[in-house]
Amino acid sequence: MVHNHSRVLISKRHMIRSHRKVSEEQVGMLNSLTENGISVANAIRVLKNQVGGEANLGFLYSDAYNVLGSKKRSKFDGCDTKQLLSYFKHRKSNEYDFYYDLDVDEEGHLQSFFFRDNRMKVDYDAFGDLLVHDTTYRTNKYAMICGPFVGMNHHNNNVMFGVGFLINEK
User: Among 17, 91, 113, 123, which residue is least crowded by beta carbons within 10 Å?
Assistant: First the structure.
């Protein structure tokens, strides 16, 4: 009954790790909302409004990002990642100025990747004074965020400077 610290206020109890859990229903709702183009933060706000506030939600924003990230990572069987790496290595060895970069987590799961070829580099060198980076596209089987780097040439046509794919908004 003797503590070496003060007890957590009831109003902050929902923040204790042992009291936090994202239920399967909440994960389903978050997945449904994010698959329809709503950001994770806004999806959490919807859930928060439904249950009457953050204290009733049962988890923090970081918990939701972790759960959704682990669900996405579980979709990777390793085969597609190996094929992607093999494809990038092949292009790097056969094409002048092809560049790629991969980011993996501590368990070796793919988190993000970026690539650009020589044409994209030439276009960037010529027209890189206008750069647009948009991360609203999620039209791939892994629900990764596609973030193209786009500019405009002297004919007012879009030109691609590079493409990145991310597992989450972080």
Answer: 17
Strand partners, 44: none
pLDDT tens-digit readout, 82-124? 888 889 999 999 998 999 999 888 877 788 899 999 999 999 9
pTM, full prediction: 0.55
3-state secondary structure 112-160: EEEEECHHHHHHHHHHCCCCEECCCECCCCCCCEEEEEEEECCCCCEEE
Query: Which are the contacts of 144, defined by CB distance < 8 A and separation ≥ 6?
Result: 72, 112, 138, 165, 166, 167
Distance CA 161, CA 159 (A): 7
Report the C-alpha gap between 146 and 163 in whole angstroms. 7
- Which of 123, 122, 120, 117 shows the shortest CA–CA distance to 91? 117
How many CB atoms are closer than 10 A to CB 148? Answer: 16
**C-beta separation of 33 from 46 below 8 A:** yes
